[in-house]
Amino acid sequence: MSEYSLSPTGEKFQLPDQKDYLEELERLKMLVNRQRSLKREIIVVMGVGFVGAVMAAVVADAEDSKGNSAKFVIGMQRPSTRSFWKIPLLNRGLSPISTEDPEVALMIDRCVNRKKTLTATYTYDALKFAEVVIVDVQCDYLKESLGNVRNGQAEMKALEESFETIATHISPNTLVLIETTVAPGTTEQIAYPIMRKVFRKRGINTDPLLAHSFERVMPGKNYIASIRDFWRVCSGINEEAKSRVIQFLREVINTETYPLTVLDRPIESETAKIVENSYRATILAFLDEWSHFAEQNGVDLMKVINSIKVRPTHSNIIFPGPGIGGYCLPKDGGLGLWAYRHIHGFEDDIFKITPLAIDINDTRALHVAQLTRDALRNMGRPIASAEILVLGASYREDVGDTRYSGSELIVRRLTEMGAELRVHDPYVLHWWEFEKQDEYPASSHSLKRFFRGQEKLKDLRVGQDLKETLHGTDAVIFAVRHQPYLTLDPDEIVNHAGGPIAVIDCFALLDDTKIKRYFELGCEVKGLGRGHVKRIKDQVREEKEKVLTENVRQGLRLKVRNKAL
Ligand SMILES: NC(=O)c1ccc[n+]([C@@H]2O[C@H](COP(=O)([O-])OP(=O)(O)OC[C@H]3O[C@@H](n4cnc5c(N)ncnc54)[C@H](O)[C@@H]3O)[C@@H](O)[C@H]2O)c1
What we know:
Elements: E1 4-6, E2 12-14, H1 18-37, E3 41-46, H2 52-61, E4 71-76, H3 86-91, H4 102-114, E5 118-121, E6 132-135, E7 141-143, E8 152-154, H5 157-169, E9 175-178, H6 186-201, E10 209-212, H7 223-228, E11 233-236, H8 239-252, E12 261-262, H9 266-296, H10 301-309, H11 332-342, H12 353-363, H13 366-378, E13 387-391, H14 406-416, E14 420-424, H15 432-435, E15 462-463, H16 466-470, E16 475-478, H17 483-486, H18 490-497, E17 502-505, H19 512-520, E18 524-527, H20 533-564
Parallel strand pairs: 3-4, 3-6, 4-5, 6-9, 9-10, 11-12, 13-14, 13-16, 14-15, 16-17, 17-18
Antiparallel strand pairs: 1-2, 7-8, 10-11
The structure holds nicotinamide-adenine-dinucleotide.
């Protein structure tokens, strides 16, 4: 029976069979011969996911000093049911990832259809033609429990298989550039021995030319710039690999404006990536305890942060929102911990801050469920069977990337508590973490494994019409600082909801005027790190009491006057 791969828009693509492989190889041979006659280098990008698809386009779009395309790129993707669709899409000139950067779609179309410097394939035979192979396959970290990163492991299988496959096919002087975020030590202690062994079996006596240079991709409006026009760190396994990777990066990204940092050994480049992301995870996590402090002591954490930010030395202090998502921050520190024990063989426990930061970030969103429960309780409504609307599914503002978003945890916990959830997000059409929760991001990876009663969430659909999703809701959770949410008017929200609601502000979206207005409209407001809402609530109550007292007084005065008449 034929197997199919389904694209996000529902298009079905049949997986290739043996006959297709032969034809595909012939197609590639013809393409490569033609490209070689044009003096173009052949670059294979392995893994055309969030990073690889765009990196492939950046390389295919690069031009030499005379304005000529000097590289021909073959994006190579294994033909799994989950990912095969990316290949036919790319070959039509369509981006396999949806992004807010319009340049991504334009660049892929330009390279495939006009410059003809980009193609995609499913056959590993493509590797035979490569002068450079760029590795952009994933290296996940699987957590066994929620809020305990120590209880987990790096998933090395896809990566290890890739190294073996690459070594089986490439020519001895192909440069292999690993861009995947890996456990520090991977290039020298995992990739090198695997590839060397295969080389020796093939009778090749030289060492594989391995280099590492990590990506700093930022999903969103500046996707392309975050790859092409940004600083890079790199290193090679030996002098030849090092000089080849420097040369290659100079040819494909903007190293003139954003100079390269060259480190002595790949483990240093690998460590730089892990430390960079652990640093960010830590400065976010540390504010969690101050967020609780703020809530319990009438303090607005957002104002505190803004008052500190003015110091240039503290300008990167950031409000943590409902949990720290994205693909990288929740996992990268785990890769570091894992490497220390399982690659380098140490038994002692040197890591204190990095795992704690990840654990705090991984569970921060659960507090939002408590705030929602309390706000509804104050309004005399039980959480069980309450209709709750989450505004924002993605992990950060103005992007459609939902990977490990805090919103996912909010939905899962509130569902477990018996609430009925709805969601709206202007940037997300499908929330695959729910719609395909049995297989996405992978069968064993769904966060549903940490919660009960999650089956019905397969039917959760992302609303695009805010008015419609608001109708009849008991609570609104502002989860992401998407631009369209910043200007929402409390009167309109309450009007569309059909009456007073609980409002939960997870990301300091609401200014004091709006918070006050919600209270005036009879709503209950709570927010992460926003202890001052209680003061505003008291103020509104006092004002209401004053008006009431004044009305009573006036009523009395009228009564007295009427009596006198
Ligand atoms: N997404 C980001 O924002 C981001 C930012 C910086 C760094 N990174 C790092 O970049 C790396 C890639 O991340 P991503 O987001 O692109 O992951 P992804 O899951 O979107 O893409 C990986 C791709 O590799 C393919 N693949 C797996 N094994 C393969 C094989 N043997 N042969 C061919 N293809 C194979 C998968 O099918 C998938 O399409 C990760 O290490 C990640 O940590 C990601």
